[in-house]
Design brief:
2 strands; extended; 4 helices; about 5% strand; single chain; two-stranded antiparallel ribbon; mainly alpha
Length: about 140
């Protein structure tokens, strides 16, 4: 049985602050950069699947526009994180991210939970792209 949860139940909720390890500073994006790379690769893989399924010379310019916009959507935030002034602390390593997880507005998430939440959309798109590729080859 499902019970409705009203927004007032969480009106006074506060995020739980986890202590940072020594010599570690806050950064522009708290997620590990490899998740950013995974998103970038996943969406470009989908674009490649769409080109493999439906690519013709008449569609070269629209696909180039898609690629430019997609690259801009991921390169600009990466560049922004790179040019921000250093705050004196070291950046977290992948092993630390896997061990510590991530604090978000709804509470503490394990690294595996964060990866599922971040990478689910590219995974679904790649599955959809593979399905369309198979259908386009069979028709």
């Amino acid at each position: 049985m499902n019970m409705p949860i009203h927004a007032t139940a969480f009106a006074n909720a506060q995020p739980i602050a986890q202590p940072l390890r020594r010599n570690r500073a806050e950064h522009v994006f708290d997620l590990h950069p490899m998740l950013h790379v995974g998103l970038f690769a996943g969406f470009f893989a989908y674009l490649g699947l769409m080109w493999a399924a439906f690519g013709e010379k008449q569609l070269a310019i629209p696909f180039a526009i898609f690629a430019i916009f997609l690259a801009g959507a991921y390169i600009v935030p990466a560049w922004w994180a790179w040019v921000v002034p250093d705050e004196g602390g070291r950046k977290p390593e992948w092993a630390e991210f896997m061990h510590e997880g991530f604090a978000c507005e709804t509470g503490w998430q394990s690294a595996q939970g964060v990866m599922v939440q971040v990478l689910i959309m590219p995974a679904v798109l790649i599955g959809w792209g593979l399905f369309l590729l198979v259908v386009s080859r069979l028709v």
